[in-house]
Amino acid sequence: LAFGFWGEIFCYDIYRLYRLLCLWRKGMMRLTAASIGAAILSTIEPSSSFARPSFGIGANGRSSSSNGVGDGVTSTCSLPSRGWAGGETLSMSTATDSEVVTVSTSPIEGMRPGTSGLRKKTTVWEMTENYVENFIQSLIDTAMESNGGKMLDTVVVAGDGRYYNNDAIQTIARVLAANGVSNIWIPQDGIMSTPAVSAVIRRRTADGSGEDGQGVAQGGIVLTASHNPGGPEEDFGIKYNEGLGQPAGEEFTETLYEKTLEIKSYRTLNSDGIDLSAPVGTEYQLTPTSKVTLIDPFENYLDALKSCFDFDGLKQFTSRPDFRMLFDGMHGAGSKFARRVLVDELGMPESALMRCDPLPDFGGCHPDPNLTYASELVKRMGLRADGSADDSVDASSLPVLGAANDGDGDRNLIAGAGFFVTPSDSMALICDNYDAIPQFASKGGLNGVARSMPSSAALDVVAEARGIPCFVTPTGWKFFGNLMSSKESFDGKDYGPFLCGEESFGTGSDHVREKDGLWAVLAWMSILSKANEGVGEGEPLTSVREIVTRHWAKYGRHFYCRYDYEGVESESANAVMDFIRSSFVGSDSGTFEANEAGIRLVGAEEFSYEDPVDGSRTSKQGLILNFELASGDPARVVFRLSGTGSSGATIRMYLERYEKDSSRHDMSAPVALKELADVALKLVKMEETTTRNAPTVIT
Fold first, then answer.
1. Model pLDDT, residue 668
2. Preceding peptide of 297 cis, ω within 30°
3. Partners of 540 in the beta sheet?
4. For 138-196, what is each residue's pLDDT tens digit?
């Protein structure tokens, strides 16, 4: 035991010397005999207590520098025993003898954020000198400028747990503290879903609790590449959420980008890292005016969900012996929140969860909850790869509800036994069944709904029938944020309660200012619970299939699917868009004849958007080809370049056709849309321009 104890101290000394060399190499401190000696002596100096260092997630916060320049601030916290000292709680005294240093740097090209922050290959973030520091310094300068020139007081920093998450958190905390941010809130272990970060910003007060709108954080830095793969050779990203919990708008991100092109230096500390696995409530005083607090990742988000749903009622429904559910966490951040809600709160068995342990590389999977990447869940729900039912499987043996989250927990997939629900249909169903959701029912229904332009018009039909204002926006949750915060930010019309979503498996409401995968799952559980009121034990439950097919019979079906051409050369991708723009937009539709299937191009347009809240205008948001079918029913195909990838370009082609005839509603969407897809691909010369003869993914 003694050998192991002192052996670990020796290893920790080596680690501290390594950190000194790294800091010296980056010009962040003077490497002197005094600093080396202090690094070693500070570990073995007499003390009544000692906390084991936690390798791999940051050191325990003790200073690596003693060069006479630091502030000599001390903080104290308690750490639980790690099983080597009889189980007692130990007291840890942490000296943060930190020096604020200014490091010269140069602009790095390519830091323009996309629709959801800046995403690059992990190697770019990890291996490019000063990459994280440059971006965060530019971000905090932009945030201070938008705050009237005053430095932010409180900022949340959290990530989805992908590779490089905790290393980046350490770097960000040092830059924030050196710039004078007083309170830096980091969830224990550094992992939090994106909607949970929004909940913390909106709800958390100084003592940890709080109602919606009482939050004191002025922003949040979210480390995520969302549904993109993670790992040393995969993707990493950083996005910023503003003071209402919403993603930063275009004005903010453009200013940030401009600052990355002008940066000459950044501020940071020469301190060691912090132990992110320490107990909730642990504080690290990094400078006399800046401290890190480890917060409970669940509390505020759980409060937000409980304000939306009847947890007692859901617990009673899910305890029925004939109800089974399967949730796929895809090894993302949302999986730990799913366990907390579904198992700990609602009492469901662990067998209801699959892949619900966050992993840095998401277990080698692509954490995008669609028919392709959630293939195991899809199979276990009795579905084929195209979303149609596998007739060889007995539907009565399948779970009643299947669901999945993506890497950062903001997207969702919904399926019933042998039945896939498209994201666009899911939004429309939630809108039409608002009375099953206490968040909406308690306020008399919805005051506004919105969808992204590429999503199907299924939501529009329901909104029109129910007299609910409906907005069609560009892709990007920040556009929904303005609508949700119209009254809060602009003293405009109050659209809350509000429902919104995107075809890319994103659904949410105004309980936070992000899409929320777990919220969508609980919404569907509530719809099922309401539909089965009065159904006794032994009687068959009303299924997801029955709920959706009844909806189609009432409103008609919008057949819908998406073709993704991933990793296309940027030049080729832009050539496709330029060809559509020059050949079809503004052209005389009378010049286009119907093909042998009776499908005729009747017009084309490029989508632009004028925000009804702040008046801002966004252009070039997608190219739309409008068609008329032989039946006279409308159809459309949308082409758009995705802004969420880390390299190359993704061409997304969205296909939609409306069908009122209920006798034709049982067709598989890819089959129903195949002829339309063939016509569109031939018109735009997709294969000729990109050399791709098939999409990477069909969802």
1. 86
2. no
3. none
4. 999 999 999 999 999 999 999 999 999 999 999 999 999 999 999 999 999 999 999 99
Which residues, at least 6 apart from 312, have a Cβ–Cβ distance to it below 8 Å?
A: none
Q: Is the CB of residue 535 less than 8 Å from the CB of residue 267?
A: no
Residue 352 DSSP one-character state: G
Is 116 or 379 the better-scoring residue by pLDDT?
A: 379
DSSP assignment string, 59-71: --S--S--SS-S-
**Closest by CA position to 344, among listed 296, 399, 298, 309:** 298
599: Cα separation from own chain's centroid: 38
- Sign of torsion, CA 213 217 221 222? negative
Confidence at 665, pLDDT banded by 50, 70, 90: very high
Q: Is 275 helix (H, G, I), strand (E, B) or coil?
A: coil
* Contact between residue 323 and residue 542 where contact means Cβ atoms under 8 Å apart: no
For 391-403, the three-class secondary structure string (H helix, E strand, C coil) is: CCCCHHHCCCEEE
226: left (phi over 0), alpha (psi -120 to 50) or beta: left
Query: What HEC string does 183-194 produce?
Result: EEEEEHHHECCH
Q: Which residues of 80-94 are buried (b: 16+ CB within 10 A; e: fewer)?
A: eeeeeeeeeebebeb
Active site residue 226: yes
Helix (H) / strand (E) containing 660: none
Both structure tokens of 135: 């971006």
Residue with token string 């980008």: 257
Q: How is residue 248 written in tokens?
A: 């930063």
Rounded Cα distance between 131 and 140, Å, is: 14
Residue 24 burial (10 A CB sphere; 0-12, 13-18, 19+) = middle
| pLDDT, tens only, 575-586 | 999 999 999 998
Q: At CA 423, angle to CA 530 and CA 321, rounded to 5? A: 35
Q: Residue 497: what pLDDT?
A: 97
pLDDT in tens, 240-284: 999 999 999 889 999 999 999 999 999 999 988 899 999 999 999
637 phi and psi, to 5 degrees?
-130, 130
116, 226, 290, 646: which one is catalytic? 226
* 415: nearest Cα among 428, 402, 396: 402
Nearest to 263 by CA among 152, 371, 153, 132: 132
Report pLDDT for 351.
97
Structure tokens at 645: 């990838």
Name residue 206's beta-bridge partners: none
H-helix or E-strand spanning residue 490: helix 486-490
Confidence at residue 38, expressed as pLDDT on a 0 to 100 scale:
39
Distance CA 608, CA 99 (A): 49
Angle between helices 544-555 and 423-432 (to 10 degrees): 80
90 vs 599, which has greater pLDDT?
A: 599
Range scoring the smallest mean pLDDT among 36-45, 116-125, 443-452: 36-45
488 has a pLDDT exceeding 90: no
**Which has the closest alpha carbon to 176: 221, 125, 201, 140?**
140
Q: In this model, does residue 37 exceed pLDDT 80? A: no
Q: pLDDT tens digits, residue range 452-462? A: 999 999 999 99
pLDDT in tens, 362-382: 999 999 999 999 999 999 999
Element of type H or E holding 450: strand 448-452
Do residues 59 and 27 make contact, with C-beta atoms less than 8 angstroms apart?
A: no
Give CA–CA dist 413/529, Å, rounded: 19
What is the C-alpha separation between 124 and 384, in angstroms, rounded?
Answer: 38
Question: Rounded CA gap, 577 and 641, in Å?
Answer: 8
Tokens describing residue 44: 């073995």
Count CB-CB contacts under 10 A for residue 114: 16
Return the ∠ at Cα 199 (arms to 215 and 442), rounded to 5°.
Answer: 95
